[in-house]
Amino acid sequence: MRGNLAMAQPEITLERLGEMLIFAAKLVDRKGPIAQPILDRCEREYLAAKQRQETKGGSQLDRVRKLMGANAQI
Q1: Has residue 59 been placed in a domain?
Q2: Where in the sequence is the domain holding 46, given as residue range(s)?
Q3: What is the DSSP secondary-structure string of 3-63?
Q4: Which residues neighbour 47 within 8 Å (Cβ) at sequence distance 6 or greater?
Q5: Structural domain contains residue 58
Q6: pLDDT tens for residues 43-62?
Q7: Counted domains in the chain
Q8: Cβ(67)–Cβ(28) under 8 Å?
Q9: Is the distance from CB of 63 to CB of 57 less than 8 angstroms?
């Protein structure tokens, strides 16, 4: 019952993802390219979580305006 286990786990915070990203970078420094996929995954997860956090309070229109720079007329 893998699905039940996933539902019981709490959300991973941005701070925790940052810690995991640093750990993965140290791992790549020690073990070499064999560990690079772990760092790549941690980086993607961190950036996605950061983007979700930044857009949480605003509208999608605000997000797109920010993406396009300054005050895009939409």
Answers
A1: yes
A2: 11-68
A3: HHHHHHSPPPPHHHHHHHHHHHHHHHHHH-GGGHHHHHHHHHHHHHHHHHHHHHSS-HHHH
A4: none
A5: yes
A6: 999 999 988 887 776 677 77
A7: 1
A8: no
A9: no
